[in-house]
Amino acid sequence: MRVRAAILLLLLVVAGVAAWSYFRPIPTVAATGSLPASEVIAGTPPALPWPARGSAAVSAQNLGFIGSSGNEQAIPAASVTKVMTALVILEDKPLKRDEQGPTITITNTDVQAYSADVADNQSALEVRVGEQLTELQLLQGMLIPSANNFAETLARWDAGSIDAFVAKMNARTAALKLTHTRFADTSGADAGSVSTTGANFLFGATVTVDGKPIVVFGCVMGQPTLDVAFATAKVLIASLQATLHIRQVITRNQTIATYVTAWGNQSDLVSPVDVIVLAWPGMVLRQRLDVLPIVVDRPIPAGTKKGNVHIVLGDYNLDVPLVTSDPLFPPGRLWRLTRVTF
User: Fold this and answer.
1) pLDDT tens digits for 325-341?
2) What does the pLDDT look like over 4-27, one tens digit per residue?
3) Helices in 93-245 by DSSP H: which ranges?
4) Calpha distance 311→275 (Å, rounded)
């Protein structure tokens, strides 16, 4: 009798433990990454052909700032300011070749700005309330006859106010590492807009890098003549073209991380796309896995998005999706009954 009771008690205990084990929550599964947190782009950064006097800075499409030189004293920038105004406008609202761009309707504020510029003996073009001008027309009027009021109209259209637009201009200047250049207005009429002394030249050029067209841009400041500024820009552009390269940092179907369950199921997390960037030797590529732990309480099909890998290189700031390479299935009954993990 006692033996039967002991056996019954044991069976009850085993059944209780099995039931408790079965109904416990399924454990979460964390992904294990396979990418380094950072790596240095291969190669030795070249000594760029910087000007012997003055200063310069260069950047490249998407990659952003590459380098700068010089330490010149700042003086009023005058109409060079309008070039930065045009750069910010075209970065915010790009125009294709032969494209006019959006139409801007002239307001009473624009007419008052014109009248104030004329009264101040500034360069200006007449406008009337209700007149409609395209983005391209405003840019042409600002850069060719140097209309200060057109610069202000563009700024208000782009950023809502002159002050907000000037903040954008100074942010762009900071990104170019032009430490002695700052802007107080959109046209250069304000003496608070300053840059380096001498001939100044902002440039942009399309060059071929590893068979792909890439835009490089920058500035050469404080040169003795414009001819010297032009020549300096040309050699800088040639050096950029020779050193920049297209690099594939992630290939399609590359394993970025892996899920391994306690019950033996496994799936890689892969990139569904190639990731190609413009690279400069010596820059640091940073990679961060943004994948949360999961609970596999129902089947997860292959191809299910489960997170991203975040990539930063210069101005590149990319979130690359990651998907499961294989299906993941919940644990079976036997594993849930017999598991000994807690």
Assistant:
1) 999 999 987 887 777 65
2) 655 665 555 455 545 555 557 888
3) 108-119, 135-143, 148-159, 162-175, 226-243
4) 10
- Which pLDDT score is estimated for 251? 96
Does residue 196 contact residue 182 with C-beta atoms inside 8 Å?
no
* CB-CB contact of 136 with 101 (8 Å): yes
264 — alpha (psi -120 to 50), left (phi > 0) or beta?
left
How many residues appear in the chain? 342
- DSSP string over 213-247: EEEEEEEEEEESSHHHHHHHHHHHHHHHHHH-EEE
CB 110 within 8 A of CB 232: no
Residue 240 to residue 67: CA distance in whole angstroms: 11
DSSP string, 326-337: S-B-PPPHHHHH
Phi first, then psi, for residue 149 (nearest 5°) are -65, -30
Please name which of 176, 240, 206 lies closest in space to residue 97, comparing C-alpha atoms.
206
Query: Which pLDDT belongs to residue 13?
Result: 47
Dist. CA 244–CA 210, nearest whole Å: 9
- Name the β-bridge partners of 269: 257, 324
Which residue ranges of the chain lie beneath pLDDT 50? 13, 17, 75-76, 342
57-60 CB contacts, 8 Å cutoff, 24+ apart? 57/176, 57/177, 57/178, 57/218, 57/219, 58/216, 58/217, 58/218, 58/236, 58/240, 59/175, 59/176, 59/216, 59/217, 59/218, 60/214, 60/215, 60/216, 60/217, 60/240, 60/244, 60/278, 60/280
Fold of 73-196: Beta-lactamase (3.40.710)
| Residue in 214, 291, 212, 209 with CA at minimum distance from that of residue 258 | 291
Burial of 330 (0-12, 13-18, 19+ CB in 10 A): middle
pTM score: 0.67
Q: Got the DSSP string for 27-63?
A: PPBPEEE-S-SEEEPSSPPP-----SSSEEEEEETTT
Which DSSP helix (H) or strand (E) runs through 76?
strand 74-76
